[in-house]
Specification:
By secondary structure, this protein is an alpha+beta fold. Helices cover about 30% and strands about 40% of the residues. The chain has 2 domains: about 130 residues, Ribosomal Protein S5, domain 2, CATH 3.30.230.30; about 60 residues, ACT domain (Alpha-Beta Plaits), CATH 3.30.70. Strands 2-3-6-4-5 form a 5-stranded antiparallel β-sheet, sandwiched between helices. α2 packs parallel to α3.
């Protein structure tokens, strides 16, 4: 399998509602970068929906999609978190967090009914947002003298790099993400700018 240069994610949040025998399932999908982002959304929804009986969720993170977690939040094992993650995976997405808030309607849905409800609510929420392709980036740190600032910033902009952190003083520190597809070319150009120290982030 070739090493991917892009990953698929969503660019904005969405919400969808699914009803079954009185129970309401509200699915909220968000683009996220870190586990911390997911935790903040979860806390926010527990505050916003205190009367909901379940706050089930799933997320997948990282360009390789290696970080993921599912939570059934009190529903029978495997009936909520897994179907939510299944929908994220069926669209081959990463850096996505989906939380489904359930308001109980008085009738038990049983295992097949629950799986269907969580799956359908998530599918509906993910259908409402456009899927975007983003370049996989490799993180590098640049150290350089302030006088080179203009040249470095022009190069970063032209190469489609993202800036994760910057400290601008007499000596500058930039942490940038270089698109994997253009790595050799960008590093070559950076090396041409003499006295820019380029260090790969571990």
């Amino acid at each position: 399998m070739s090493d991917p240069e892009y990953y698929q994610t969503i660019e904005k949040a969405s919400v969808a509602e699914f009803k079954d025998r009185g129970s309401k399932f509200f699915a909220f999908a968000f683009p996220v970068q870190t586990i911390e982002d997911c935790k903040q959304y979860l806390q926010q929804f527990k505050k916003e929906h205190p009367k909901a009986v379940h706050h089930c969720f799933a997320y997948r993170l990282g360009w390789d999609g290696n970080q993921f977690r599912v939570s059934d939040d009190g529903e029978p094992g495997g009936t909520a978190g897994k179907p939510i993650l299944g929908q994220i995976d069926s669209k081959q997405l990463t850096n996505v967090f989906v939380i489904v808030v359930r308001y109980f309607g008085g009738t038990l849905l049983g295992v097949p009914g629950l799986i269907n409800a969580y799956k359908s609510a998530t599918a509906m929420a993910l259908q409402l947002v456009p899927i975007v392709q983003k370049p996989i980036e490799v993180l590098y740190e640049l150290h350089f003298d302030y006088t080179l600032m203009n040249d470095v910033m022009i190069l970063i902009k032209q190469s489609g790099c993202s800036v994760a952190f910057q400290e601008m003083q007499l000596f500058c520190l930039l942490r940038i993400g270089i698109p994997k597809a253009r790595l050799t070319e960008v590093l070559h150009k950076l090396n041409d700018l003499h006295s820019v120290e380029v260090i790969k982030c571990v």
